[in-house]
Amino acid sequence: MQVILLRHSPCPEGDRRCYGRLDIAPDLPGMQTALPALHAALPEAYDVWSSPAQRCQQLAAQLSPVYLTSTCLQELDFGVWEGMPWDEVPRAELDAWAQDIWHFCPGGGESASQLQTRWQTFVDGLQSERLARPQVIVTHAGVIRMALSDAGIIPAHDRWQARIDHMVPYLIDY
Predict the structure, then answer these.
(1) Pairing of strands 135-139, 68-69
(2) In this prediction, what percent of the chain has a pLDDT beyond 70?
(3) How far apart are CA 174 and CA 156, in angstroms?
(4) Neighbouring C-alpha atoms within 13 Å toward the C-beta of 167
(5) Strands, DSSP E only, in 8-150?
(6) Pairing of strands 68-69, 47-50
(7) Using CA atoms in the order 26, 30, 31, 37, what is the torsion angle rounded to 10 degrees?
(8) What digits encode the pLDDT tens for the residues 43-70?
(9) What is the C-alpha to C-alpha distance for residues 26 and 163, in angstroms, rounded to an integer?
(10) Which residues contact 7 (CB under 8 A, 6 or more apart)?
(11) Predicted pLDDT of residue 61
């Protein structure tokens, strides 16, 4: 099975803010400008999945009039940090998160191990369906980092620093 991961289009409102589950709008004109190149990079036929966030669904709708959503594709939940400028998140909490990224729940939200479980649950579901067409998944940087690392495409130690570009396809063959 082929999975093509796409990060939603940029969100101008999100610059320098923590916005994991915060449902903010994407840059629609920028998305429209980038769509022709994205369409050219995708296979001729595919199924589309999306995170429930509007920034993902708006891109998914441009790729297919019919798409499915899954809460497994949501970004990491940052709890009370959601919407805060990163420079206002208490330094001690950021340090605690950096020391134990797998188990610490930033802002009381969700840990990286919980995100990994969500992703694996989603992939297991896809694999059990034995789908013939490629699966295009419109999601978030955290989910894509997890998926690429779990697939061995990026080293585990680089998982959290890996750059994930907006509207660029990342391919995994399962």
Answers:
(1) unpaired
(2) 100
(3) 18
(4) 24
(5) 47-50, 68-69, 135-139
(6) parallel
(7) -150
(8) 999 999 999 999 999 999 999 999 999 9
(9) 19
(10) 138, 139, 140, 141, 144, 164, 165, 166, 167, 168
(11) 97
Q: What is the Cα–Cα distance from 170 to 121, expressed in whole angstroms?
A: 19
Residues 138 and 49 sit within 8 Å (Cβ to Cβ) = yes
Return the structure tokens found at 8. 């939603």
Residues 132 and 46: their CA atoms lie apart, in Å, by 9
Residues 118, 112: Cα–Cα separation, whole Å: 10
Cβ atoms of residues 55 and 26 within 8 Å:
yes
Contact at 8 Å (CB) between 144 and 12?
A: no
Contact 8, 53 (CB under 8 A): yes
Q: Give the tokens for residue 2.
A: 């082929």
Q: How far is CA 68 from CA 11, 37, 47, 49, 138, in A?
A: 22, 23, 9, 5, 10
Q: Determine how β-strand 47-50 pairs with β-strand 2-7.
A: unpaired
Nearest CA to 172 out of 147, 155, 154, 146 is that of: 147
Is this model's pTM higher than 0.90 or not?
A: yes
